């Protein structure tokens, strides 16, 4: 007799602070038999895992991959085919650079029951924690999300990006932001266009660095921590406070008080 399939939940854990996990995510986590979890930043997440659950850490950080995407998918399928309730707990939202789509397609192909539970994305958590909106009347009515890993490798329409009237949010872009800034300026963007790097969004260790495209194109932009960072480009960054006055190095750094 064929064993009844279990169910896989692709769950967004939020940007890093357990208090930003949704109530639905928490309730699903409580009934999990198997948990495959990402690098969730705050270790207190582990307190919410059932003691009876089989737990796998499969988090990814640049240069520190603990499991390949295929290995993660294989685990999801294996445990679901054993009839277990499986939670794939992802940082942020599963469908915002979380590779949730790849896992979803495999689950559909294997006819494994699943449910998607959205999470608070670091996209909004970073800007909110730093004190500026993603959209604002008269400044930005649209948001463009870019992947810093691949934008320099693809056939990117830099003129279109340079003329974009809104907020650009760059994930995984701290190593490539120098060249991105140069490309944007070369194609018409103002060198004074403000930029914010937000690290460890939603945590007590959140750091915000404010500068502009010109300074970055000349000097680069260095992270202050080993945690993940999101880069925001656009006039809304000025709403952190009054228009920033830059130091000789071109940076205004803000810590927990932001």
Total helices: the number is 7
Q: Specify the CATH architecture of the largest domain.
A: 2-Layer Sandwich
Strand order of the largest sheet: 6-7-10-8-9-11
What's the CATH class of the largest domain, please? Answer: Alpha Beta
Question: In whole angstroms, how far apart are the ends?
Answer: 59 Å
Sheet/helix structural class: alpha/beta
EC number: 2.1.1.107
Organism: Leptospira sarikeiensis
Protein name: uroporphyrinogen-III C-methyltransferase
Keywords: Methyltransferase, Porphyrin biosynthesis, S-adenosyl-L-methionine, Transferase
Overall description:
The protein has 258 residues and is α/β, with parallel strands linked by helices. The chain has two domains: 7-117, Tetrapyrrole methylase, N-terminal domain (Cobalt-precorrin-4 Transmethylase, domain 1); 122-254, 2-Layer Sandwich (Methyltransferase, Cobalt-precorrin-4 Transmethylase, Domain 2), CATH 3.30.950.10. The chain is 24% helix and 21% strand. It is built from seven helices and eleven strands. It has helices at 23-30, 69-81, 100-109, 122-130, 158-162, 177-186, 213-219, and strands at residues 7-12, 34-37, 54-57, 85-90, 114-117, 143-147, 167-171, 194-199, 207-212, 229-233, 252-254. The chain has a six-stranded mixed beta sheet. A five-stranded parallel beta sheet has the order 3-2-4-1-5, with helices on both faces. A hairpin with a 7-residue loop joins strand 8 (194-199) and strand 9. The longest helix has 13 residues, at 69-81. The model is unreliable at 242-258 (pLDDT under 50).
């Amino acid at each position: 007799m064929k064993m009844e399939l279990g169910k896989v939940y692709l769950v967004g854990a939020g940007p890093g602070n357990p208090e930003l996990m949704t109530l639905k995510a928490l309730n699903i986590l409580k009934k999990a038999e198997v948990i495959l979890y990402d690098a969730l930043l705050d270790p207190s997440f582990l307190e919410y895992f059932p003691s009876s659950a089989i737990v796998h850490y499969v988090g990814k950080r640049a240069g520190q991959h603990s499991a390949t995407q295929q290995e993660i998918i294989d685990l999801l399928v294996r445990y679901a085919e054993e009839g277990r309730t499986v939670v794939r707990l992802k940082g942020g939202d599963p469908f915002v650079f979380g590779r949730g789509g790849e896992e979803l397609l495999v689950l559909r192909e294997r006819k494994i029951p699943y449910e998607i539970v959205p999470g608070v994305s670091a996209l909004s958590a970073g800007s909110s924690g730093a004190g500026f909106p993603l959209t604002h009347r008269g400044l930005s009515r649209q948001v463009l999300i870019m992947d810093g890993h691949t934008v320099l490798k693809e056939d990117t329409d830099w003129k279109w990006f340079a003329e974009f009237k809104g907020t650009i949010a760059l994930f995984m872009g701290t190593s490539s932001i120098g060249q991105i800034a140069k490309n944007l300026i070369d194609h018409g963007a103002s060198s004074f266009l403000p930029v914010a790097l937000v690290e460890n969004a939603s945590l007590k260790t959140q750091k915000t660095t404010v500068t502009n495209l010109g300074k970055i194109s000349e000097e680069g932009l260095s992270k202050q921590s080993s945690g993940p960072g999101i880069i925001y480009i656009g006039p809304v960054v000025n709403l952190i406070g009054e228009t920033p006055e830059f130091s000789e190095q071109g940076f205004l750094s803000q810590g927990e008080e932001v």
